[in-house]
Amino acid sequence: MVDPPSAVHVIELGTLLVWAEKEGRRPPWRELTDPYRVGVAEILLQKTRARDVEPVWQQVVDRFRTPQALANAEAGEVFTIVQPLGLGIQRTNRLKCMAAELAAKGTSGPLSGLGPYGQAVVALSGGREPSSIPVDGNVARVTCRYYGMTFDRGEPRKKPDVRAAVAHLLDTGSTPLTKLKILYSLVDLGEAVCKPRKPSCPVCPVAPACRFAQTCARDAINSRTAEANANARGGGTASETRRI
Ligand code: SF4
Q1: Positive/negative CA dihedral, 167, 171, 173, 175
Q2: What does the radius of gyration of the chain's CA atoms come to, in whole angstroms?
Q3: Among 19, 76, 78, 175, which is disulfide-ready with 205 (CB 3.0 to 4.6 Å)?
């Protein structure tokens, strides 16, 4: 279990937000505080790249301007629009169910077709506190490395400790929309900098407080020292320690 964010973590998160402002992705739904349009995006993004989703999302929200309009739409018409992304029937059903529930009860409860991450993003976009902790693969990877958490088995994003750590990070945001910004920043950092195989720690905005980066730096120093000692003794090479 990690401790709540210390002052140093809060400072690093401020740096992260500044980085995301410049380097983060800007799909149109991220600028919106409309749970309907954000919910449509989250369903279209399932197993699909954001750049493929953008034109289809635009068509859906232009054609069906309210949740009620999408809920009442002919399934065939929705299918025709979303089919290029694949999963046409599943997506059509999920979109229509989610829209019907939004039209009936707003974001006051869980919405069909969205996982815990999507549920939380929709709630935050509407200015509500989420009932689930939004942890996707990128967020889990960044958080684990940042706090130096490792697991022998199982998916990190499903671990209670990781969810608690993400909740702590998001809680540094004073409003749901600030929390959403922090979340998107973590997603973008995981995609652009803290990549699965090769994190770019030297250019990472949170490197000064990141346990993984600190461990790598220490390993590099130890490795260079061992190599220098081996050379001084007149032979042998130090083995390189890798941490992925
Ligand atoms: Fe990831 Fe490195 Fe940044 Fe840590 S410093 S979050 S490991 S890229």
Answers
A1: positive
A2: 21
A3: 19
